[in-house]
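Changelog note: in this version the structure field was regenerated for every chain. One regenerated record is shown below for reference.
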Amino acid sequence: MAAPLTFDSAYRRIRRGDLDPVYYLTGDEDVLKDELIALLVDAVVDDGTRDFNLDVRGAADVDAETFNALVETPPMLAERRLVVVRHVDQWRKNSKVWQVLEAYVARPSPTTVLVMTAGSKTVAALTKGSTHVPIQPLRPDRLLKWVAMRAERAGVAFSEEAVEHLVAAVGPDLAFLGMEIEKLATASTGEPLTPAVVADFVGVRQGETVDDWVAAVLMRDIPRALRLVRPVLSTAGTSGVRLLISLGPSLLGLAIARSLLDAGRRGRDAERAIMDHLKAARPFGLGPWGRVATDWVRWAPRWSPDELEEAMRAAWEADRALKSTTITDEAGVLSDMLLKLSVREAA
């Protein structure tokens, strides 16, 4: 069984025309799956014969007979045809179509390129006979590059600071980012968009993002964190639970940084150790990891291990309160949590 390919490796291989008979794309990043599929369409199917040699189906609409016809039909006026079946994990493992799929993956047609997509859970029988590409969320630095590339494709230019603000304002969801970029493209005048223009367009001012709130908490600037609660909550798609989801990994990272400092590791040495943790855990939603590691090391001395433990407990209690009741005053729950941290700091 061949080792899985990363998204980047698969992308490079397809671009240079190194095609495989079966691809198995897994993971929850559907936008990146679509980018690989679009690349395969361009690599496998000519524009002139696309109507005959490209089939894209959802698994719910494909039974065993249909699947067999799709993959065994010879190409018309071309060397190959491309078949895409989305969400094959919707098929029951003991169904007839699943049996036909497993048999086909073991002995694929030489004139068909089959692409299967699924969620994060993989099936060994499919990974053995296919090119498996488990697609993970982009690292923060790669996310910024993805936004810049998507913007260029849409014909809109961003300054580096504008890209960073867009990601901070919208979050790391690629689908939402793509939609916002398309909207910004319609309003672009051809000049590089500044952070101020992006802020006006998405309705989130600089200094009032989720990341800004989290940073205020980690810096123990409780007055600023309190002032930011309502402006941040007022932005589209932001809830109290989302704020706590963003805060949790950062508190844990701060605790790791604190333990490294207590063990005598300082500066770049501590930052490198934190980077190793980030690469292993790949937490979702953080900013560029290098900057995050630097901030955690800088802010960790402001907390004792006990205070960090209490902060994580307070965040957990606030999360439970938001999820287990019909509370409408999310700002009140978060403010109470912050006031608890302020009292502990003063004590």
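Spot check on this record: The chain is about 60% helix and 5% strand. The mean pLDDT is 89.
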